[in-house]
Amino acid sequence: MQGVNSTVKAKVKYKKRHPSFASRFKSNLPLLLFVIPGAIWMIFFFYIPIFANVVAFQDFHFSAGGFLESLRTSSWVGFKNFEFLFSSNAAWVITRNTLLYNLGFIVLNLIISVFFAIVMSQLRNKRLIKVYQTSMLLPYFLSWVVISYFVYAFISPNQGLINSLLTGSGGKAISWYNAPQYWPFILLFIGTWKSIGYNSILYFASAMGVDPTLYEAAEIDGANKWQQIKHVTIPALVPLMTLMTILAIGNIFRADFGLFYQVPQNSGSLYNVTSVLDTYIFNGLTSTGDIGMSSAAALYQSFVGFVLLMISNAVVRKIDPDSALF
Amino acid sequence: MRQPKKQISSVEVRSFGHKSNLFFNILLAIFAFSCLLPLIFIIIISLTSEQSLLADGYQFFPKHWSLAGYEYLATMGGQLLNALGITVLVTVFGTLVNATFTSTYAYSISRSSFKYRKFFTVFCLITMLFTPGMVANYIVMTNLLQLKDTIWALILPLAVSPFNIIVMRTFFKRQVNESIIEAARIDGAGEMRIFLKIVLPLAVPGIATISLFAALGYWNDWFNALLYIQDSHLVPLQYLLMKIQSNIEMLTQNAAQGAQYAGGMANIPQEATRMAMVVISVLPIAISYPFFQKYFVKGLTIGGVKE
């Protein structure tokens, strides 16, 4: 008797949990409609472009008949584009520049913004902290075009402030936009300067979240300021530091286009030190018109970036699962 | 009676001693000032007379001040107003679209009763792992969607932000209790009504944050214009600045049409005018962001990517 009863119950439950497809669809329809615009956007700005990467294996030419027509009329060339790309000197230069600059940014950003964040969290004058933060955020909110004007005001060859100071003190003016030896420092400085405010506020928020009783306990135990920072503040910041670093390493193959294109004003004589993957792809796409080569570079960039993101996430998940992205 | 024991406030506990406090204050003040200095410099240049600029270059303390740059901008009208109009239009409309699409998507995937929640969450997360790349995006925009030289080329690429969707999903989950939604549904409210009347008011801080980021993105965008815009009527302000930087003569070419400037063609204060345009493009941000700053800071901490 009991057995029969329970199977009947089970059946009823089963029916309840699985309403017909139509009614299920209907009850989910409003929320589905909410998702549709975003999903369509993702299809056109992510999923189709991902597929469009096949042009890297083509000798691609635009056809007036639309995208499918262009795909159909362009001939397949296998890995030819990649062979051309990697046999050129450019591939090495742009990879080196992209990696080294981004590595520089990761290290500088991490050290300086954590330093500023800790210092700000320990300052006595709360109102001054607000003033500092507001000023430091300004560059973050400005576009690279505006920043490039800032840079130009200082290093313009004819009117720039630095050159007039140099000539004023008896030195020789420097033609900055034709002097590649200075640009690694300029770019590292500007790139870090622009983002330090944002990053240090991020770490600052985290440092202020530290339970004050921990400091009290440390003080009672006789820890001095430096020991408190080392053993209380920094460990509290480590998860955020890890997260930010994985994100940055996942993006290490992607350069900030504005910084490398606009700030050096796309000056040809600086290419050796300023050209990165993004500017190379852009120049190939727009001025030289070599779509095959730049699409190969773009796919190379996306692919390596994806692999790096996966590796860095896997490493972090092994060390500290809570800090991993996914 | 007061205890003679020294009270330690939490401020005392986490603060520097007085000497190091002063030292680090000076250090931070120097850096903070370095962030404002270039903008101050640009403002000074825009207020310098053209003769001073040509004779001494850009100086913090110019010999002759002049408003000529701004006066010329006022007569220039056309091109500048058009660019400003495009930027404002794109920023306002784009921000509306971005905030709407991002928050509705995030809201749906935050609801545990939504059957296709898993699918659409993954659908969005995948877009963050891989980038299609500039070339593929360019081909789709121009060849498939045929949007080159349309205003949509400036709006659509920034219309949805997958990262913000994930951030907002966490925000909705935390701010909006499922039981409130359930109660409203039992009372007979439809999904649309629930979203507009119950969810939105609760989510104002989050939506304000993503809207501000979107507005900033649109206002500062020049990259999409660089890729997709050739028509001079569709040039936004940032792209106009960019073009004038590499080719200052554009300013005078434009004057040939107007030719109203009192000083005559030869005396157009090119340098000062150019910097005055930079000042005008920066001013709305520089004036407003200190007031919105708390939202930006909140946005950073609004919810980790993970639950």
Automatic annotation (TrEMBL), chain A:
Top-level taxon of origin: Bacteria
Domain ABC transmembrane type-1: 95-312
Keyword match Ubl conjugation: no
Pfam families listed in its UniProt record: BPD_transp_1
Main location: membrane
Subcellular location: Cell membrane
Residue stretches spanning the membrane: 31-52, 99-119, 131-155, 182-205, 232-253, 297-316
Coiled coil: none
Topology with respect to the bilayer: Multi-pass membrane protein
GO terms under cellular component: plasma membrane
GO biological process per UniProt: transmembrane transport
Family named by the database record: Belongs to the binding-protein-dependent transport system permease family.
Protein name (database record): Sugar ABC transporter substrate binding protein
Automatic annotation (TrEMBL), chain B:
Main location: membrane
InterPro entries: MetI-like, MetI-like_sf
GO annotation, biological process: transmembrane transport
Cellular localisation: Cell membrane
PROSITE patterns reported for this sequence: ABC_TM1, PROKAR_LIPOPROTEIN
Transmembrane segments: 21-47, 80-107, 119-139, 151-172, 194-219, 275-292
Domain of life (superkingdom): Bacteria
Any single GO CC term annotated in Swiss-Prot or TrEMBL for this entry: plasma membrane
Keyword annotations: Cell membrane, Membrane, Transmembrane, Transmembrane helix, Transport
Recorded family membership: Belongs to the binding-protein-dependent transport system permease family.
Stated name of the protein: Sugar ABC transporter permease
Source species of the chain: Pediococcus cellicola
